[in-house]
């Protein structure tokens, strides 16, 4: 059962939109007060004109006298004024709503007519939040030196995964990717990164996070990333979150679209499962209506996704982190539920734009071992990354991927089964 949550507003306290919100609220108050003044000074005209529709639809009844003409003109003026006030109030409410969402075009909000058929396009990209270096000055200083175009690859690691981490950063270096960072969850990994000249960041002490980070397994550590990534986004940086069981073969920043809040690789193994398909549910007992069409898509992989510093992105991280702190749940399941579940009674859905990555460029290990290695054409393609997410024997398979794609050993993948016995 997903609990209903009110949107929290700490991010909005010190941002540049707060002044605009204050101005808009003030304007709303002025409009309301103006309406009250009109009611006070012209009570008869106001109450006589509550039904604008009746005046528009029916000519003024009664004999044509000077008194009736005066009443009619007075009612007409009141109707026009009230209609104008209502219009202004609607516009101010809309501006306030957009200001609360962090829109940077508050002053220019206006109603627009739709264009000709086939030409209408909605906005695709939410604006970035205003960077707030006061959140973490030390991290801000580090990112300024490492990030490229305010983008960076981030991975979390503790000493339990040292060997896998070494394969991870060795291939990043080989490809020539400069903007990457390891969030070291214990002192041993900090020293390991330093000795290998790998950029790392050791967080300030935090008991709630440090305990899990130092002794937790892969699943527990995976859940920490949603809380830790929040600071990166608040500082105004786009993050390519990466698990360490990934082999980099090309620079991923050359293959991103950057048109969504979240751009993620898929656990799907073909075009249908990765990008969505029409599935049919058959219930024979329903007779004539036994067939129901459904839309399905395989989940996004929470171990490799690009996330932009927008309000919906930060809300996503907050929602997932909050649920994982209360529920004994799989982080990837919660990540997908918050991204895809629509609003319904008792729950407000997340308004975030999503994009699924190309499954043959950002490849999971099921696609590689079950399909690609057995296909003459697909096996000649060079992926951007390969994520060994479907198999527990990660380290030997990662080394085999390097042998196959980097060293040209065509037999390197043959000893491995499609799945896991």
UniProtKB/TrEMBL annotation:
It is an enzyme of class 2 (transferase). One of its GO terms (biological process) is cell wall organization. It is a single-pass type II membrane protein. Its main location: Golgi. InterPro entries: Nucl-diP-sugar_transferase, Nucleotide-diphossugar_trans, RRA1/2/3. The keyword Ion transport does not apply. This is Glycosyltransferase. It comes from Medicago truncatula.
């Amino acid at each position: 059962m997903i609990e209903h949550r009110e949107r929290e507003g700490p991010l909005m306290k010190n941002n540049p939109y707060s002044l605009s919100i204050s101005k808009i609220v003030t304007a709303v108050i002025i409009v309301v007060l103006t309406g009250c003044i009109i009611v006070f000074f012209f009570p008869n005209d106001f109450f006589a004109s509550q039904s604008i529709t009746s005046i528009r639809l029916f000519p003024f009844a009664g004999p044509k006298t000077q008194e009736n003409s005066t009443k009619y003109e007075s009612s007409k003026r009141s109707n026009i004024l009230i209609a104008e006030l209502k219009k202004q109030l609607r516009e101010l409410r809309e501006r306030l709503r957009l200001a609360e969402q962090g829109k940077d075009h508050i002053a220019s909000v206006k109603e627009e007519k739709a264009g000709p058929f086939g030409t209408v396009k909605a906005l695709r990209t939410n604006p970035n939040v205003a960077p707030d270096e006061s959140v973490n000055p030390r991290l801000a200083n580090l990112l300024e030196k490492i990030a490229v175009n305010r983008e960076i690859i981030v991975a979390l690691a503790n000493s339990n995964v040292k060997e896998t981490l070494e394969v991870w950063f060795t291939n990043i270096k080989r490809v020539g990717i400069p903007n990457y960072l390891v969030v070291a969850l214990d002192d041993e990994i900090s020293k390991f990164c330093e000795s290998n000249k790998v950029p790392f960041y050791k967080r300030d002490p935090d008991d709630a996070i440090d305990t899990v980070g130092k002794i937790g397994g892969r699943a527990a550590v995976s859940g920490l990333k949603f809380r830790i990534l929040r600071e990166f986004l608040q500082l105004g940086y786009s993050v390519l979150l990466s698990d360490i069981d990934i082999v980099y073969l090309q620079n991923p920043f050359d293959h991103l679209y950057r048109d969504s809040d979240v751009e993620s690789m898929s656990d799907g193994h073909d075009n249908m499962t990765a990008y969505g398909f029409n599935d049919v549910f058959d219930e024979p007992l329903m007779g004539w209506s036994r067939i129901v069409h459904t839309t399905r898509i395989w989940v996004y992989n929470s171990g490799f996704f690009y996330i932009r510093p927008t309000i919906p992105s930060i809300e996503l991280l907050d929602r997932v982190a909050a649920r994982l702190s209360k529920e004994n749940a799989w982080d990837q399941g919660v990540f997908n539920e918050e991204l895809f579940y629509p609003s319904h009674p008792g729950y407000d859905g997340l308004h975030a734009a999503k994009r699924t990555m190309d499954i043959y460029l950002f490849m999971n290990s099921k696609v590689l071992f079950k399909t690609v290695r057995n296909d003459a054409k697909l096996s000649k393609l060079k992926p951007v990354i390969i994520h060994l997410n479907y198999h527990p024997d990660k380290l030997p398979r990662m080394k085999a991927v390097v042998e196959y794609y980097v060293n040209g050993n065509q037999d390197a993948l043959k000893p491995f089964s499609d799945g896991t016995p």
